[in-house]
Amino acid sequence: MSPALEVLATGPLVLVEDEGRPGHAAVGVPHSGAADRGAHRLGARLVGHDAGLASLEVLLGGLAVRARGRMTVALTGAPAPATLDGRPVAHAALVDLPDGSVLRLGTPTRGLRTYLTVRGGIAVTPVLGSRSSDTLSGLGPAPVRAGDVLPVGVAGPTFPTVDHAARRPAPSTDPTVLEVLPGPRAAWVGGDAGDLGGLLGSTWTVGGQSDRIGLRLSGSLVQRTHDHQDLELPSEGLVRGAVQVPPGGEPVVFLADHPVTGGYPVVAVLTPAAADRAAQLRPGDTVRLTPTR
Fold it and tell me: CA of 196: how far to CAs of 148, 247, 289, in Å?
């Protein structure tokens, strides 16, 4: 029998995610992929397979799976308490799942998304070259539900070289600091002034409408320069981490499932590492945006 994971429970949301669908933006297909790419790639390195293989992205815990066949897994991202047949297992470490064993994830104490990586990858049917679930376009597999049986791929020729990874320390600052580069429309909010119209000098709160598409930030308003008060833009390309300022002045930070275009000025762009950290922010968390050094 081919190895598989039988899903017993899912919690709020569980998605299949890999590295996404690059190269299709010109025809309107978003990139998508794991929201915290660093966590997804760490899981792949731990189990010894390519990062292009799919893992499970678990929102706020609650996942329970039964192994059909023996397999090796790792948990990365938000550190959720986990048990195997009732016994605690480590985070960011290799875990052996015997046939018939049950792995359960609790709610992480910090962060939002935990990644369950299975050696061989989650082998659901790809769409346009990717197994990622895209919550904006609807491409890819449906959200994982209790009762699903997820096939696991054949392990490749490479093998795990370590049994655990050093834990990344929790952010030492509150609010969380996210590094940015100037965006293509930085001049619209006074890019030469250094604070991007107040974007870099304020503390922002993550709004309750945030999701894999983006974070809505509330706080003081980003001010446009006098020369750009009444201007509008045609739609132009967007990337992960783009910080867009709608007319109301409260910024939106785009994440993995962002649209391919947008019509509001992009005044800054998060660095890749900062975009990973942004994907772990919960509603109510506070952030400060700072220029890269």
Answer: 47, 15, 10
